[in-house]
Design a protein that fits this description.
This protein is an alpha+beta fold. It has 4 helices and 5 strands.
């Protein structure tokens, strides 16, 4: 099937979860997610106007929010004395050869570092379990899995 057939035969998305609009003149993007509106942009040093978080900041925000929500939900179910969660994240690019735990040994890889701060009188075992639970948040699982992104023109 050629590209024009893929374009014309693919169904339209009728109810998107997120819509992003840009004017093609600047990096600033208007994002509508359900009833929420916000802006993504690049810093001034990268040619943007710094009117919102960068796309990678939004990606890290999704992982951080999901991590905190998942940890909080688990602690509530267990009736553990978790009083608060802070998730600090950083994205960088690394050489694959510098990653001992990575399967890929060539090229450049994305690395996300995530630090968790758990407040409350938790035991060492509870803290360890909550760290383990962080690994099972849905966004974490999505980022660690093979992702199939399908694109087409309307």
């Amino acid at each position: 099937m050629n590209v024009s057939q893929q374009i014309s035969s693919h169904p339209s998305i009728l109810e998107p979860n997120v819509v992003v609009r840009g004017n093609a003149v600047s990096f600033a993007q208007e994002i509508v997610a359900g009833s929420h509106r916000f802006t993504a942009d690049e810093p001034a040093a990268a040619g943007g106007t710094n009117s919102g978080p960068t796309p990678y900041d939004l990606l890290l925000s999704a992982l951080g929010a999901c991590t905190s929500m998942t940890i909080g939900m688990y602690a509530r179910r267990k009736n553990w004395p978790l009083e608060g969660v802070i998730v600090r994240l950083r994205h960088s690019k690394i050489h694959a050869e510098d990653c001992a735990a990575c399967e890929t040994k060539e090229g450049i890889l994305d690395r996300i570092e995530r630090e968790l701060e758990l407040a409350g009188p938790l035991t060492t075992e509870q803290r360890a379990k909550l760290l383990q639970i962080a690994e099972s948040c849905p966004v974490h699982r999505t980022l660690k899995s093979q992702i199939d992104i399908e694109s087409w023109l309307k």
